Amino acid sequence: MSAVVRVADRINALEESATLAMAQKSRELAAKGHKVINLSIGEPDFKTPKHICEAAKDAIDAGFHSYTPVPGIPELRQAIAEKFKRDNNIDWKPENIIVSTGAKHSLANALAATVNKGDEVIIFAPYWVSYSEMVKLAEGTSVILEGAFDNNFKVTPEQLEAAITDKTRVIMFSSPANPTGSVYSRAELEAIAKIVEKHENILVLADEIYEYINFMDEGHFSIGSIESIKDRVITVNGMAKGFAMTGWRIGYIGAAKYIVDAINKLQGQVTSGTNHIAQRASVVAWDDMTAAETMRRAYLIRRDLVVSGLREIPGFKVNVPDGAFYAFPDISDYFGKSDGETTINSSDDFSLYLLAKAHVATVAGSGFGAPNCIRISTAASDEALEEAIERIKKACSELK
Ligand code: PMP
Ligand code: GLU
């Protein structure tokens, strides 16, 4: 490559997002006329609730077309502060809230604002694909802690304790988790908090974007509500999943004021306040939770359908996700097998084989730090999911 057309080292070092890459491959195959079932990208197949859409239309008509304050409009920061109190038992004032362009942006901002070169960021694996890459961009070092299949892919407090060094700066994870659907219980989070308490320099980056898609009886618990470490927990959330608002691009953070101020400074130089119409619309989201609850119930039915369907496929080891909308089967039994043309040696091979042979798009576990698994989004109609399982079953039966 010539000196003129080169790109920066930080881009060369970055992996492409595995979720977005697979979604693109799926689109390309569909554009060629194939009937592809796209279970790659994690995106609700529902429309945004009506009251939110109406508020957006009203915002346009009322002329809310201008820039907003960098951390978000006061009404939305107030509504989020109330939401943190009501749903999460976290007492944040509006000054502790900053709104950004999706939870992805919130996470990247939080890391950029708190991690110095060489700081270690402990990531619970399997993890969402972008975590390790965001850490790279922040010049941190990822320390991956693997949750065992038999512990529903959750990391234990003992594992965490053993991984902490004097370079540890952040511990990050999602609960309910992408890609496993695992949910950390209150007791598990309290045990983690006990360890964090002992290390004053450590922050927790808690990604709670799947909060409203939780199937546990005990419901959602936020580690940020534990008073002893409250000031060191950055809680990330957003409108995308619970309210089916992926394209609206609203994410937010609740954190200690010095962290919010740091992100404000960064955001002020990079993106400014996010979309004004989407912010106005989000203010009313929590006024009516009926649609969010209807979607949660639908995801639960699909979870059961997919788990039982996948368990019928020989060689699939399938955990029961307690939240989110993914199944994450271990398919390593197929490694070394072939249909006569393609040999499966990795989760990437397996995922590509399913796309080519069954026209079902999934995502390889390798990008999630789980090379024995594939991720299947259950955010699709029951019919599409049933059809996909049949297709996967048939494709697998040809691997000997
Ligand atoms: N965190 C997790 C765990 C996710 O799965 C996603 C996927 N969208 C995000 C954050 C980012 O969400 P957003 O669309 O709000 O950027
Ligand atoms: N979070 C979703 C997923 O994991 C959306 C895609 C993305 O932003 O990576 O598929």
Relevant CATH superfamily of the largest domain: Type I PLP-dependent aspartate aminotransferase-like (Major domain)
CATH class of the largest domain: Alpha Beta
**Which structural class is indicated by helix and strand composition?**
alpha/beta
Please state the average pLDDT score: 97
How far apart, in Å, are the first and last alpha carbons? 43 Å
Helix content: 25-40%
- What is the level-2 CATH architecture name of the largest domain? 3-Layer(aba) Sandwich
- Number-wise, the strands total 12
Q: Number of domains in the coordinates? A: 2
Instruction: Please give the order of strands in the largest beta sheet.
Output: 2-8-7-6-5-3-4
The largest pleated sheet is described as: 7 strands, mixed
Bound molecules: 4'-deoxy-4'-aminopyridoxal-5'-phosphate, glutamic acid
Name the beta content range: 5-15%
Radius of gyration: 21 Å
Identify low-pLDDT runs. none
Number of helices: 13
| Shape descriptor | globular
Q: Under CATH, the topology of the largest domain is which? A: Aspartate Aminotransferase, domain 2
Order of helices and strands: HHEHHEHEHEHEHEEEHHHEHEEEH
